[in-house]
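Recap for those who missed Tuesday's class. We walked through two folding examples back to back. For each one, the amino acid string is listed first and its predicted structure tokens come directly after. Nothing is annotated here on purpose, so try labeling regions yourself before you check the end of the notes.
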Amino acid sequence: MLAGAVSAADPFFINMGFSIFQAYPENEKSQPLDQNSGGLFASEGAGMFLLKRLDDALKDGDTVHAVIRSVGWSNDGRGQFVLSPNPKGQVLAFERAYADSGIQPEKIDYVECHATGTPLGDKVELNSMETFFGKHDAKPKIGSVKSNLGHMLTAAGMGGMTKVILAMKHGMIPPTINVESPMESGDGGISSDLIVRETCSWPHQREQKHSTVSAFGFGGTNAHLLFDRLPDETLLKAEKSELPRMAIIGMDGIFGPCNGLDSLYETFFEGKSHTEPLPLKRWKGFEQDTELLSEYGLKTENLKGAWIPDFTMDFLRFKLPPNPKERLIPQQLLVMEVTDRALKQSGIQEGGNVAVLVAMETELELHRFRGRINLEQQIENSLLKHGISLDDSKKEELSRLIRDNLHESVPVNQFTSFIGNIMASRIASLWDFNGPALTISAEEHSVSKALETAQVLLGNGNVDAVVVSAVDLAGSPENLLLRQKFFGQSSSNETKDFSELFPGEGCGTVVLTSLSQAVSEEKPIWSIIDSIQHHQAREADFKFLNPKNPVPNSTPGLLELGFSALPSEVPEQSNERLNSISLSCSQNQLGHAGAASGMLSLIKTSLCLQHRVLPAWSDNPRNESSFRL
């Protein structure tokens, strides 16, 4: 498996964000673990590991650079502020990493800290280390590669891991530079002399070396990894965890005008199709730019889709500021509302070891913030081009009006919602969950990848339950024009072929536990997920449909289609097996909801199983196959 990370976002956007957070040091120096450090230094980078099971690597004679012994994941849960670290979550990550590792904390030679250079963050991290390592009388050397490379954000952990692997290989620990007044923990358990400030030899000469890497991200997402220099025989022949069947014990959704399961049920089983004209003000006048639309093969009158008209939420419940200018972007508000409803339905208690996974993609409307910044120069160029002269006051007034119409100025709270992965942490914070919280982005496959991850987490015993949410406001002008350019997405429902789709938008959530746990706790079950498979070739999923192949133990009664039409490999001739399978396509009714489309299909299928009915089609599609419609 290839596993890596990359950080190469728009530098201007990154710099504006950290400026709003007031996170940059005045002296422009990266000084993690220094008492006088004034903030972090953002940077870019990428890295990649080729991973193999240890048994397989040794059997194949591969060069083993290091062994990942264990990983401890956690989330801070409920805390003070989304950008403020909580030692509770960091200590929990330490504890989980060592729980089943077979190694004691006092055996660790070196800890690569997350330390970014922010005064609060570095202080909290050292105190967390003192709390955990202190009770084991462990005093490992410490350092931070961010003094050399800066904070690579999404790739930050990759820099730290690469450093410790090379350090163990060469038996030398590189220094943490720019440390003039070294920090220490509150009670001195992690003293300043543990910081490696000059290149030094490894603390001992034994062949086997142990080191760790901490990665503590925005929103309180924490990871602590244990590395060995050499393979350990005790790690060989490790039992492979069985992937459990998963039970959906909570579920809710808002897609298009359908708010909640009752409305979705009515749409699916009455065969309704929600293709509505574009709501007023939704596109802020973009729809009136006929020249722009024509470049993408669109017309204003054909801009139809399954739009979300509005939704309500209790700002007090979510502890959100009432000031509209501080409001989070709709993408994050929507996922918080829907997820909260599904969790309440599931009966899960607050404060548990529950993971939160959110399937999502970058909200493309964020480019308007970048556009706001660029407008001043664009206006200046346009005035010069047309020979228009304005005094400074009128020029500023014109610039302000256009800027605010495109995107208002962004305060701290709203800018935090521009960071996609924080939405998972917001949910974990609201419910005080301490399992891992993260986002997964794989376009239309985001939900299936999230479900696959959930199954692994449950199978390994890492968590007691997993919340999987998916959100995509795919009806924005940026999103629709981009899809139209590359995929020619239909903007209306004039054709009857279900491969022609219109834009949809929405959010859905399922709450998962292992089936055995759901049964033992007598939880109400919407449906059961038996297995999850991904294939590069579409025909691999449909081998059971070919009459020449052996009949499987069970043939599905319902086949829920994705955003594309039938695979070309499905046999066209009529046969009994195909005649017994009904086709369904939720996107035929509620549009193509991007990263949330898989969740829409999952909710529809679960409702079918729960109520033991087959859904109706919204029209009479062209059906040249032998499937039932």
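Example two. Treat it independently of the first, because the proteins are unrelated.
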Amino acid sequence: MLTEMIKEYVEEELERYISVLEIVNDYGVGKLKYIENKFILKTITEDLLKNVLNIYDTNGEYFKISMNGKPSIESVIEDKNDMPPGSNLLNKNYKLISMNGQDIGIIDYIMNYPDEDAVYIGLFMINGDFHRQGYGRAFIEGFIANMREKGYRRIRLGVLKQNKNGFEFWARMGFKVVKEMISTIHPERNWEIMVMEKAIKIRK
């Protein structure tokens, strides 16, 4: 038992160490120090909907794939209210990601879905001006660590099949495809998605 606990701890720390090395190699030590522990999640009230739209507007390629057009305030409100079948609105979190007073991203996640051991990420998006600078990776590393502390064992998400950049990002973060399906959110839009998942090792 003790040997297994030590093995899990070493694997977890090695995974985090490799992630830190990748940020340092790509962006330098200064960037790592700048982005570490700087993120704040803000509840999106009506007066912040435009801030979300500004982030959406910098991710035009994604919206060409998902809606064959440009996002609007209406599409922000739709995302804010969308829920997969069987989920609980009380577990829905649609948040702005803020750093040093600037809104740099958006995350939509549902706790205890599809079961009590899992967290489901419905949307994760970083402002296009901050792409390829390590912010997305750093945020998700922190998010996973936080969910681990809360006792969750899996992070699950869906990636549109045509979204190559999104798939590559999540694959680099250690997520694996577990199945392919038509999205249960707006099935009339016939979105083909790859369901990806990452196990979280709980420290004992």
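Answers for example two:
The radius of gyration is 17 Å.
The chain has one domain: 2-199.
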